[in-house]
Amino acid sequence: MAFNILIVDDEPVNLSLLRQVLGSDYNLFFARNGLEAISRAERCNPDLILLDVMMPEMDGIEACKRLKANPRLTSVPVILVTALSNEENEEKGFAVGAVDYISKPFSPVLVRARVKTQLALYDRRKELENLVQERTQELELSQLAAVRMLGRAAEYKDNETGKHVIRMSQYSRILARTIGWDKTAADLLMHAAPMHDIGKIGIPDSILRKPGALDAGEWEVMRKHPEIGAQIIASQIDLVAESKLLRMAKSIALSHHEKWDGSGYPQGLKGEVIPVEGRIVAIADVFDALTSKRPYKDAWSVEKAIELLVDQSGKHFEPELVEAFMSSIDQVIPIKEQWQD
Can the peptide bond before residue 105 be classed as cis, meaning omega within 30 degrees of 0? Predict the structure, then answer.
């Protein structure tokens, strides 16, 4: 497949000459000034840009600067073409992201050689970037699988169902999107949320599965599960230092039992000091617990569960998040129905 090259020059004779030199080997696109070059580059997806420096309205230096500021074009190599040959102009060009210079009048052999070299480097760089992206995706998928397995393990120990984490994770994502999180951040929250109760692995079964109310000593042990969960996840963060997923999972595990008024645990955090991901998961987790059947209780209606959220607004839960959750209830109910126990 031939490479795409965008050639930018205000002189028709230069465009014609470069067409003769490169036209038989590459797909060529043309622009006559800097502004046109920016617009054309967004449409033709160039693999290389030959950019004249001396042009009216917007010179090549400014055009190069703007091209490099565009996320879609920032990696495309730019070779500046100029009749001027001095260190100051070259320094300006390299400072805004150009990779090479070609001087006028053109030497066809030199033009072909420079273009071929930069396209080879660009192609190799894209191959390496794709390889890194593939490896990163593989690592992220492995981390995600581990997070899900550990979250499921905690639920087996706690007599929960796998559908509980699916529902509460989806509710968390919906709430995050409702308050303005972008899709990437909301998806990250959804994937991290299943780890919220992983610390229950460290709680004795005699306490975790006790049919009656816990006494003071047992409750003190139970309240340690957020810290245990954070410690479990932290041990893996040391191995995968750049994992946003594990960092968010740790934050959720540690903070999802904190309360807006400061009466929660394990740290007694209050208000906006509580990480927002913990505040979101707290609502999603409690709502799902209330509306799900458990050995010790029947499922509440959605209306009754909402009444409790409203009653606990400003106490257990952040008021604005409660309002946002209520406003998104039409998205929540289909998830609840789709993933029934």
Answer: yes
One-letter amino acid at 85 equals: S
CB 195 within 8 A of CB 151: yes
Specify whether the backbone of 265 is left (phi greater than 0), alpha (psi in -120 to 50) or beta.
beta
Q: Per residue in 230-253, pLDDT tens? A: 998 887 665 555 578 888 999 999
CB 48 within 8 A of CB 77: yes
Q: Which CATH number fits domain 4-106: 3.30.160.100, 3.40.50.970, 3.40.50.1440, 3.40.50.2300?
A: 3.40.50.2300
- Order of strands, edge to edge, in the sheet holding 48-52? 27-31, 4-8, 48-52, 78-82, 100-103
Q: Residues 314, 320, 326, 328: is their CA dihedral positive or negative? A: negative
Given a cut of 80, is residue 151 above it in pLDDT?
Answer: no
Q: What is the pLDDT of residues 267-316, one digit of tens each?
A: 999 999 999 999 999 999 999 999 998 766 789 999 999 999 999 999 99
User: What CA–CA distance (Å, rounded) separates 173 from 11?
Assistant: 55
What pTM was estimated for this model as a whole? 0.60
Separation CA 34–CA 228 (nearest Å):
59
